Amino acid sequence: MGRVAFADNVEERRIDEIEENEEEPYKVFEYQEGPQNGSWAGALPVKQGLYDPSLEKDACGVGFAAHIKGKPSHKIVTDARSLLCNMTHRGAVGSDARDGDGAGVMTSLPHRFFQKNFEREQGIKLPELGKYAAGNLFFKPEEEALKDTLDVFEKLADDLDLRVLGWREVPKDSTLLGPAAKSREPIILQPFVVLKSAYGAGKEPNADFEEKYDAQLFEKHLYILRKRATHTIGLHNWFYLCSLSNKNIVYKGQLSPVQVYDYFHDLVNVDYEAHFALVHSRFSTNTFPSWDRAQPLRWAAHNGEINTLRGNKNNMRAREGVLKSAFFGDALESLYPIIEDGGSDSAAFDNVLELLTINGVLSLPEAVMLMVPEAWEGNDTIDPAKKAFYEWAACMMEPWD
Hints:
Helix content: 25-40%
Largest sheet: 5 strands, antiparallel
Number of helices: 13
Structural class: alpha+beta
């Protein structure tokens, strides 16, 4: 090896001098709020240069834990935590590692947990599991705006023969958040919703609740409430429905995988029991993270990018002019646009999957097969009945590739 040459003018500097001179204050992205910005809380930039928020895509990690016989336990929830933390490499963080791209968990409704907490806090008795709905909703952290939004939401529910029994504030640890996530941290509240005509106006279900309760009507009106509330209140007002269901609930945010269970205190409570848990770690591919774009979504957790997104969205929008549904009847038009503005490619997929499933004609597996068919053409080994289904599906909707 040849001689090593050293520069003659090397300047010696102490570590404390380097830290003092080179450390710059972290600056949060300057949000572009205004009527032209349709993203949740104005968290994304407006369309400019080569950037278009409608082209936002995700590439992520997903994990699933379940009890095969549907028996709820806290172990399923803790196992899901291990799954999520082991997918840290499938997510991403900002220049401050406390600012994650987004992470979350979907579980079945923790009925025992809600009985102990909501009933004790509010003094209102919940019906049995499956006959009430709960979910996590994002709101703007301003007192006046919050009051107005809650009033609008409860009025929309009342118009649909639904009653909001009460609201529960989700306990959380905001000290974990990085500056970007903290600058857009919403208030997170849980509404508990029942079918008003069956439950009644009191603090416990009417004696004839079981006779008057209509499961199909309840699920339909919950879906209509989700859509009308989103369209009426709007993402620009920081309003977002993570979930509102009688079957599952979603806890998520602009977090890293290791932050989720520390941020949401509910998830580490031993009374929080579930028979399944679906976890997701988001990697926002060349895009911007925000609280609403974290996953799981209301029906799915998606890993990958949808390359046919623009065509899928345009075709779905055009299809709204000829859509008909015996299930929704005249209420169908109030659900438009089916694909909500300001969402990612995964959110658009979830919006359509939700409609197909709630409509009741297709089961969840069939709806997924319709939207994401396997390579069936030219495959002679495929079951003839399945091939016939795919031939029919190809006439109904183009694939989401």
